[in-house]
Design brief:
Length: 322
């Protein structure tokens, strides 16, 4: 019994040491961070801030690889095909958990084909119109939509994105109508709102908070239970006495499915450091992000539950794309 106990004890002590040594020898080359949206969009800003933080810690360049298309599925399919040696990771969000349920032939299933690394942020959605719009609050906009059903459109960065979901839920919860106008990225939709070509959008804060604070867009209300520090002057829908529209977006990091657990744990710990870093934390807060770190196993549960939740909503709402 004593010999067996000693073997078990030595094994328990040696395994973490070997795992730690492997993590210290890693990485052997530059890293790639796949961002499944256009350069300049909110997710791209998040990815580049994370890449900078990772580069500082691993002493290697972290290349941001923008792979837009199909509301993020193109980039996530590329991540699923990547070499699982720990040198490629990707920025995962609620969009990919939704769009795969809407697509007739999704190239990837994020709950099945990717390995979770870390849940990093939550962010809320804000109702925006052009800066010189006559609307003062969300109630004014909703009244117009009620008076002229289906006459106006709302922009999104594509089918299945948080902006699309929030827009659909906003209309349904307030019993009003508007046409969905999907763009190839939210920045194009925001540009048309600023020009007056599209009436409104419900965008995640990382896309529009800087534009709102610069006076280039007007925010009518935050689709959240309370105000946030990035937009302190914008009232929540709860304050306005309007039905809550719960599209709390999230962002995390995933890896190819076969990526070794030890490497994913190493990444997860580094990412937690970055979210807690004062300099990077200030940059993330400026995008309207709320730090919400979760390690590998809980994040895997989030991906599974979100994929199931939105698949149910997509089916009930009849939202499909070919």
């Amino acid at each position: 019994m004593i010999k067996i106990w000693l073997v078990l004890w030595v094994g328990a002590m040696v395994f973490p040491a070997h795992a730690q040594d492997g993590a210290q020898a890693y990485p052997t080359r530059n890293l790639r961070l796949i961002v499944p949206f256009n350069a300049g969009a909110g997710p791209d800003s998040i990815g580049r801030q994370l890449a900078q933080g990772l580069s500082e810690r691993v002493k290697r360049n972290v290349i941001v690889d923008n792979r837009p298309g199909a509301s993020g599925l193109i980039g996530m399919a590329e991540l699923a095909r990547a070499n699982a040696d720990g040198h490629t990771i990707g920025l995962l969000s609620i969009s990919q958990a939704v769009i795969q349920a809407m697509a007739a032939n999704s190239p990837v299933d994020v709950a099945r084909d990717l390995a979770p690394v870390a849940h990093l942020f939550r962010q809320y959605t804000v109702l925006i119109v052009r800066a010189d719009s006559p609307f003062k609050t969300a109630r004014d906009l909703l009244q117009l939509l009620r008076d002229k059903p289906g006459e106006y459109g709302f922009a999104s960065g594509g089918n299945g994105t948080p902006a699309h979901l929030a827009g659909e839920l906003l209309l349904r919860s307030n019993k009003v109508q508007a046409r969905h106008i999907p763009y190839k990225g939210m920045l194009a939709g925001v540009t048309d709102i600023m020009r007056g070509d599209v009436l409104f959008a419900c965008s995640v804060t990382s896309n529009v908070a800087p534009l709102i604070n610069a006076g280039r867009l007007k925010a009518l209300g935050l689709l959240a239970p309370k105000r946030i520090s990035a937009l302190p002057e914008v009232p929540s829908f709860a304050e306005l006495g309007l039905p809550e529209v719960d599209v709390t977006s999230w962002n995390g990091i995933a890896a190819p499915l076969a990526t070794p657990l030890a490497l994913r744990q190493h990444f997860s710990a580094l990412l937690r450091e970055i979210t807690q870093d004062p300099v990077h934390g200030k940059a993330f807060a400026g995008l309207g992000l709320e730090t919400a770190y979760l390690p590998i196993t809980p994040f895997g549960g989030v991906i599974q539950s979100e994929a199931a939740r939105w698949a149910k909503f997509v089916k009930e709402a009849g939202l499909r794309i070919d």
